[in-house]
C-alpha cells in the first residue's frame, strides 16, 4: 500500500482502513464507514467483502496494483464506482501524467528485458497479476502456478497465458526444474524457499513473496520490479555458474 496510497491522495481519495499487515486496530474498527471496498486477494478476503456488502451496503471490487495496465484500471474503476465525474476526469489526467513518467523510467529496462521467458510460481492474486506486470515489461510468462487460486483467478490466468502457457496446480522442485527445462525459461519468479530450485536449474531468481524488502505495487513499485529483474538476469555470476567446472575441462595427457 505504501506506493498506492500517495497516488490515491493525489486524487483526493481517502483510504479509511487497510486490512493488511500494515493495519491498525482503530482503522479496522471504523472500516464499515467506507464507500467502497477494494479487494486484492479474493481467496483470503472474499467472505469479508461479501459480509460488509450485506451488513453495511458497501460495494466491493477486485483489483491488482501490479503492472501499468492493472494500476490504471484500478484507478479508473475506483473513480467510476465512486460516481464522481470530476474525479474521473482528474483520474484520466493523473494516469496520463504517471504513465508518461513511468514509460521514461522503464524504457532502458524494457529494452533489456524484452523477450525474456519467465516461470512464475506463487499463489493467489499474484499468480495472474504478475503476468500482467511482466507483459508490461515485454517479458513472457510461460508457466504459472494455480495454488490458492480461485476459479476466477484461474480464468484470468488462462486468458493472460494463452493456449501455450502452462498452469501448474501443484509444484515441487523436480516439477519446476522440468518445466523450466521444457519451456527454456530465463528466470524463476517465486517465493524465497524456491531460490535453491533456481540455483539447481542455473537460472536467475526473483523473490515475489510479501517478505521481500522492496514494494512492487503501484507506479513506483513497477520501477522497483524492473530494476530487480534486470539486476538478477544480468548478474555476471550466471555466466560463471553455467560454465563447466575446472576439473571437467582437464585434458588427459597420455
TrEMBL record:
Q: Which GO terms describe its molecular function?
A: oxidoreductase activity
Q: Name one Pfam family in it.
A: Oxidored_nitro
Q: Tell me which residues make up the Nitrogenase/oxidoreductase component domain.
A: 1-233
Superkingdom of the source species:
Bacteria
What name does UniProt use for this protein? Nitrogenase MoFe cofactor biosynthesis protein NifE
